[in-house]
Amino acid sequence: MQNRTLRALVPYGLVAAAAVSWTAAPVAAGPGYDPLAISEGLSPAPLDLTVTDAARQREIPIRVYLPVADLPAPVVLFSHGLGGTREGCAYLGRHWSTRGYVGVFLQHPGSDDSVWRGQPAGTGRAAMDEAANGRNFLLRVRDVPAVLDQLEAWNRTADHPLSGRLDLSRVGMSGHSFGAVTTQAVSGQAFARRGPVFTDPRIRAALVLSPSGPRRGDPIAAFNSVSIPWLLMTGTRDVSPIGDVDVASRLSVFPALPAGDKFELVLHEGLHSAFTERGLPGDGGVGRNPNHHRVILALSTAFWDAYLRGDEAAREWLAGEGPRGVMETPDRWQRK
């Protein structure tokens, strides 16, 4: 597939680096099943590793959040947005690891912070626009199976820190913005007449933060072949200055998905940066709502519990009034 064709297919994303951050504190969600409850004890410090993809002569930095228990655990991959790093969205990695998941946060060279870091003043935006291209899309979607292959090898290597720690029969994929584009591609999205060519069958469920419809073509054709559970999260102000992705594009994905274990959260007044720990230049000085992170943590955790662990209590929580117990009244939630 030619690069110019991919430019037409890829809805670009952005994760940049303003300096204001907020960290969610777990809050009880009520009696019974509680996706915000965390285990006792301190989680290990994140483990920074590098995956070498010899076939592509490419090195992929990753950050691994390990649970306290020294047992094989389900694995959740996370793909950052344009301009981000493996260090981003740490609030997700920390919480998921306290819930017994191994969080593996990828860094994609070519569309990471190297795009803007050290650039002359006034040139950062142009550099970001240029990096949101088909070549980087292809690099990203091929990073995912390369990382999974390496995790499988490390899991079998007796003297490696990840030896025996990974349950790779239960893998989730997630990402924000350009990372959402990556997530969609490796978990079921079809492209033109080529079908879901980038889908990795090892992925059992996907969390898509700031989804995007196809830039050309019918959303139904792009998404009706998705066969695994998907949870989409967006906001009523979730727009990206890179690629001009608007709210209508975000909201076009859920109706195009086939029925069966598909969910959508729309945060009222939720910005593109609602899913990150830092504001973005396009926020326009709008304050961040602390409850947004609480909702993201609760719903994402329940989703992983339901579809990676097979937890019936989590399924009932998602299907019942559980989500409404953490959401604010104007937030929207639907499933099919």
Explain what you see.
- The chain is an alpha/beta fold and 336 residues long.
- The chain has a single domain, classed as Rossmann fold (3-Layer(aba) Sandwich), CATH 3.40.50.1820.
- Helices cover 30% and strands 20% of the residues.
- It has a 9-stranded mixed sheet with strand order 1-2-4-3-5-6-7-8-9, with helices on both faces.
- A hairpin with a 4-residue loop joins strand 1 and strand 2 (58-65).
- Helix 9 (290-307) crosses helix 10.
- The longest helix has 22 residues, at 134-155.
Overview features:
Rossmann fold; nine-stranded mixed β-sheet; single chain; alpha/beta; 11 helices; globular; 9 strands; 336 residues; 30% helix; disordered N terminus
Write the layout of secondary structure elements.
Layout: H1 3-9, E1 47-53, E2 58-65, E3 73-79, H2 90-98, E4 102-106, H3 124-131, H4 134-155, E5 166-176, H5 178-186, E6 203-209, H6 219-223, E7 230-237, H7 247-251, H8 253-256, E8 262-271, H9 290-307, H10 312-319, H11 322-326, E9 332-335
Number of domains: 1
Q: What is the percent of helical residues?
A: 25-40%
Oligomerization state:
single chain
Average pLDDT: 88
**Poorly predicted regions:** 1-30
Question: What structural class results from the helix and strand content?
Answer: alpha/beta
Assess the beta-strand content as a share of residues: 15-25%
Write out the strand line-up for the largest beta sheet, numbering strands in chain order: 1-2-4-3-5-6-7-8-9
Largest sheet: 9 strands, mixed
Strand element count: 9
SS element count, helices: 11
SSE string, helices as H and strands as E: HEEEHEHHEHEHEHHEHHHE
Question: What Rg, in angstroms, do the CA atoms define?
Answer: 18 Å
CATH architecture annotation name: 3-Layer(aba) Sandwich
Distance between the termini: 33 Å
CATH class equals: Alpha Beta
Morphology call: globular
What is the CATH topology classification name? Rossmann fold
Fourth CATH level, the homologous superfamily? Alpha/Beta hydrolase fold, catalytic domain
